[in-house]
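wait is this the right file?? whatever heres the structure
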């Protein structure tokens, strides 16, 4: 660089020499050119030295040259900056934008997480500190002696310990001292700012979602209103609190969004008045305390003004105070005749995790506690005083109950305590200012107030609980309940669907097996028809050959009363097995020659059931349990009457005993089943079991498998010469038709999976078509 500089200088000197020696004078352009050529390699010092040299050598330099030099300087500077920036860019991790953004995102997430952790930790620690100090904190404030008291020669009875700011002593008239201890004692000389400095930590808890209540209690004229409201020169806790809330809310603006609402009311003679909603000229609007769904106390119709600045707040406080009930007592010219309650509602939303909070801050200036006798009031003032004392005593009761941890806290004994219910004791933070007068004239009142405050300080309240926005919580609770209910319903429906599917598959299985059985039966019937046709044709042939024997045969048939079935053409085909009789054959309806009847062998005392009914289900279930005989008589067509006058199929069954609940035909009264085998004892003992075992067994069990074959059935048919079914006491129907009918009930009954027994009793497995069998 030094070399470069010397070179440049030499060059310039050379140029200068040349300018002196060689006429004409060099144009400025040559300087520019030189400068341009060397700018890149020159630093600021070089240029400035060049400048000096040029000016000393040439006297006044051309302005353009100066400009050029300046520009060169700028270029140099810019180049330097460029270099620095290039280095920075090179040093930056990752050249690609996406990668860099990703890195930044990760870093942001990490920081966000750290911030949230730190912020919750801060809140926890802060809260812990307040809890250690006590969620109910009592401050004592003593006002200075006023002019009147001084004039009256009253002395101060309050002594303060210079080393202890939490204690004070009251000197009684007998010179005895009584010591009181509080969280802090404010002396007469302490200003509003000192008072608020102690209050501030609790006040800001409302922004963290805690309910806070600050109230001033004390004798009339001791400075309650002064502490809470203050004066324009000495603003009190109310104004300072809101100022602080706005300040902190602004500080947390990047993370939290706050909305502040202010309501102002007074409890005057046990009536609530909205101080923001009405002027003193207007008639008072009646307000009542209602319990909201979330369990908090609300006053429907109360004005809630959204505030954005301390100026707005100040205006509101001023307008509210204008309509407040005040009156002159001999203790205070502008004595508050009501309890004034300022409620600040804070709605907070965490912008990072969207958590919402809703909390209340109550700032209460109580009416002065006073001895009615002492202040010499009468008329309206007396009434006011009585109400004031009543509500203050209710407040005392609440505080006593909280202190003694009784199960019932009498919050509802006064409007004041009812209103403050969710902000007094329990899970909120409370500050009480006990205001006292130093005057010896007020000694009694002072002792009363200090005793009351000591009781309040003795309350061991539980840990304060953070108040989430209860309306949100309530909404979520309802949603959760609905979800739970829906889940239950869905589960129920799923169970139902499952059981229906099971039932459906069982029914499908049954239907399949029934279809198979029907097919079997139809085959058997066809066989039977064939056999009978052969038999009949043989019989007709014999009758034709021997007439007298035909007569004899007819007589025999009449005597037996068991004519064989008519030709198969006249009988209806076997259809689906049902519990009802098949419809009457066309023959029967046309000529009434063919008759199908179900005859129940009735007991002698039940004659009504013998009358003919058409397909009527039995109404008297008693009859179902009685032995029955069912006969189907078929009269052949007129043409064949000469050969076959009357035919009838008779089916005799016996109703099951009372234990039989499933297929009556399967079990005879004698304890045998239809095919003469002994009923399995296990099934007989447990009809339910038997029912289900039958449900899944394809056919009734036959003791002799040979009897189940169509051939065996044919051979056992009465039409093939088997003994007539009417054999007394036998009750073992062996005909295939009977078996079919027996199966009918077997088929029908399992379908009633539930309540089978009852349904069985309601509907007959064999339709009752009673007819008087005249034959
Ligand atoms: N700490 C104090 N320093 C100076 N002046 C005070 C102080 N406390 C009270 N005062 C003055 O005492 C007077 C009465 O105070 P204030 O009206 O606040 O009493 P109060 O307790 O609210 O009475 P009331 O119950 O009758 O409403 C006022 O003039 C007020 O300025």
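ok assuming it is, sequence goes like this
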């Amino acid at each position: 660089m030094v070399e470069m500089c010397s070179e440049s200088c030499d060059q310039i000197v050379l140029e200068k020499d040349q300018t002196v020696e060689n006429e004409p004078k060099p144009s400025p352009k040559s300087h520019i050119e030189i400068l341009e050529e060397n700018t890149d390699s020159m630093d600021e010092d070089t240029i400035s030295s060049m400048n000096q040299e040029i000016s000393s050598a040439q006297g006044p330099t051309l302005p353009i040259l100066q400009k050029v030099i300046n520009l060169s300087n700028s270029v140099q500077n810019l180049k330097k900056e460029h270099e620095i920036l290039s280095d920075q860019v090179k040093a930056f991790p990752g050249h690609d934008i996406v990668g860099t953004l990703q890195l930044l995102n990760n870093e942001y997430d990490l920081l966000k997480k750290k911030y949230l952790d730190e912020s919750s930790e801060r809140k926890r620690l802060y809260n812990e500190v307040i809890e250690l100090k006590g969620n109910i904190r009592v401050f004592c404030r003593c006002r200075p002696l006023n002019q009147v008291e001084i004039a009256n020669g009253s002395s101060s009875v309050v002594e303060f310990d210079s080393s202890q700011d939490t204690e004070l002593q009251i000197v009684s008239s007998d010179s005895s001292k009584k010591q009181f201890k509080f969280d802090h004692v404010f002396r007469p000389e302490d200003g509003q700012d000192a008072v608020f400095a102690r209050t501030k930590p609790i006040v800001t808890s409302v922004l963290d979602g805690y309910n806070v209540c600050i109230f001033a209690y004390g004798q009339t004229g001791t400075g309650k209103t002064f502490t809470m409201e203050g004066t324009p020169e000495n603003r009190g806790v109310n104004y300072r609190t809101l100022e602080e809330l706005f300040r902190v809310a602004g500080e947390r603006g990047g993370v939290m969004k706050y909305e502040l609402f202010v309501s102002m009311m007074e409890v005057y003679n046990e009536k609530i008045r909205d101080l923001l909603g009405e002027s003193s000229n207007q008639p008072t609007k009646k307000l009542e305390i209602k319990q909201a769904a979330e369990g908090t106390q609300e006053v429907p119709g109360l004005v809630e003004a959204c505030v954005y600045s301390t100026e707005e707040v100040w205006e509101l406080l001023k307008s509210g105070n204008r309509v407040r009930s005040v009156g002159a007592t001999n203790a205070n010219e502008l004595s508050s005749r009501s309890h004034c309650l300022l409620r600040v509602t804070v709605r907070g939303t965490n912008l990072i995790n969207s958590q919402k909070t809703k909390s209340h801050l109550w700032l209460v200036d109580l009416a002065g506690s006073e001895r009615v006798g002492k202040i010499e009031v009468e008329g309206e003032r007396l009434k006011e005083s009585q109400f004031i004392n009543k509500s203050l005593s209710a407040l005392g009761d609440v505080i006593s109950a909280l202190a003694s941890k009784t199960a019932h806290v009498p919050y509802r004994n006064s409007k004041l305590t009812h209103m403050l219910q969710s902000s007094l004791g329990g899970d909120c933070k409370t500050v009480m200012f006990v205001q006292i007068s130093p005057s010896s004239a007020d000694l009694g009142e002072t002792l009363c107030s200090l005793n009351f405050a000591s009781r309040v300080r003795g309350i061991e309240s539980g840990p304060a609980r953070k108040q989430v926005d209860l309306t949100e919580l309530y909404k979520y609770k309802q949603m959760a309940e609905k979800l739970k209910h829906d889940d239950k319903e869905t589960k129920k429906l799923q169970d139902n669907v499952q059981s229906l599917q099971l039932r459906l598959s069982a029914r499908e299985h049954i239907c399949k097996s029934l279809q198979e059985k029907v097919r079997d039966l139809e085959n058997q019937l066809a066989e039977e028809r064939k056999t009978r046709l052969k038999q009949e044709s043989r019989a007709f042939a014999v009758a034709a050959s021997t007439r007298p024997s035909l007569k004899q045969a007819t007589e025999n048939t009449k005597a037996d009363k068991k004519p064989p079935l008519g030709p198969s053409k006249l009988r209806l085909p076997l259809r689906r097995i049902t519990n009802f009789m098949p419809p009457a054959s066309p023959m029967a309806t046309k000529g009434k020659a063919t008759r199908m009847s179900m005859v129940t062998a009735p007991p002698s005392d039940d004659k009504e059931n013998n009358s003919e009914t058409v397909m009527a289900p039995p109404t008297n279930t008693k009859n179902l349990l009685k032995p029955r005989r069912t006969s189907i008589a078929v009269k052949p067509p007129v043409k064949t009457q000469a050969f076959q006058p009357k035919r009838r199929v008779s089916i005799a069954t016996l109703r099951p005993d009372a234990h039989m609940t499933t297929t009556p035909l399967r079990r005879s009264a004698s304890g045998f089943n239809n095919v003469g085998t002994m009923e399995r004892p296990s099934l007989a003992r447990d009809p339910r079991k038997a029912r289900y075992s039958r449900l899944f067994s394809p056919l009734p069990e036959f003791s002799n498998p040979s009897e189940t074959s169509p051939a065996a059935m044919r051979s056992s048919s009465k039409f093939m010469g088997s003994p007539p079914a009417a054999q007394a006491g036998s009750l073992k129907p062996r005909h295939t038709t009977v078996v079919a009918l027996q199966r009918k009930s077997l088929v029908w009954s399992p379908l009633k999976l539930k309540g089978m027994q009852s349904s069985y009793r309601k509907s007959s497995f064999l339709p009752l078509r009673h007819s008087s069998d005249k034959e």
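The radius of gyration is 57 Å. so i think its the right one actually
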